[in-house]
Amino acid sequence: MTKQNALDAAKKIKMLVFDCDGVMTDGSVTYDENGVEYKTFNVKDGHGLVRMNKSGFITAIITARNNGTVAHRAKNLNITELYQGKQYKLPALEELMAKYNLTYENVSYMGDDLPDICILEKVGLACCPADAVKEVLEICNFKSSYNGGRGAVRELCDFILDAQEIKKEYIVSEGASTNKQ
């Protein structure tokens, strides 16, 4: 699809859904000597998600892994919905769409690997970070110029806000009060 198609699709988005590993993170998994798993998130991506929430969008994470770090991050950013441990992600998305009375064209999904294709093939705005696998890059109509965990989420948030001509708000810190431009 062309950039104009992505722009047209972005105008219809009401819900942004994200994979976590490789999208909200760079895909690395770090363990300490006790087997505790750590993930690193990008604060600019977080700021974009907070702005989307404050602008009235539904935000969600659907991830195959179960991790307390992801739950903590989702809570910290006031992510609307979190689905963990979903090896097959499409039923979770369909549940979300039914809950909020949305169609596929109202959904943006950002994924980076083969398990995300089942959703990317259906949504109105199929998105991926720059370092997504080839099969994902080929089907997305929004390809971030940034890698996963390095600003891809923020770039998508800004793209949708711009497409819908929503003024960007300045937020002092994640979850803090806002001042309009």
Provide a compact summary of the structure.
This protein is of the alpha/beta class. It has helices at residues 3-10, 43-54, 68-76, 90-100, 117-120, 134-139, 152-163; strands spanning 15-18, 30-31, 37-38, 58-62, 81-83, 107-110, 125-128, 142-143, 169-171, 178-180.
Average pLDDT level: 90
The CATH superfamily appears as: HAD superfamily/HAD-like
CATH class: Alpha Beta
- Strand percentage lies at 15-25%
Terminal Cα span: 33 Å
| Overall geometry | globular
* Secondary structure tally: strands: 10
Written account of the structure:
The protein has 181 residues and is of the alpha/beta class. It has a single domain (3-27, 40-174), classed as Rossmann fold (3-Layer(aba) Sandwich), CATH 3.40.50. It has 7 helices and 10 strands. The protein has a 6-stranded parallel sheet with strand order 5-4-1-6-7-8, sandwiched between helices. Helix 2 packs parallel to helix 7 (152-163). The N and C termini lie far apart (33 Å).
Notable traits:
single chain; 6-stranded parallel β-sheet; 10 strands; two-stranded antiparallel sheet; Rossmann fold; disordered C terminus; 34% helix; alpha/beta; 181 residues
Write the layout of secondary structure elements.
Elements: H1 3-10, E1 15-18, E2 30-31, E3 37-38, H2 43-54, E4 58-62, H3 68-76, E5 81-83, H4 90-100, E6 107-110, H5 117-120, E7 125-128, H6 134-139, E8 142-143, H7 152-163, E9 169-171, E10 178-180
Parallel strand pairs: 1-4, 1-6, 4-5, 6-7, 7-8
Antiparallel strand pairs: 2-3, 9-10
Helix pairs in contact: 2-7
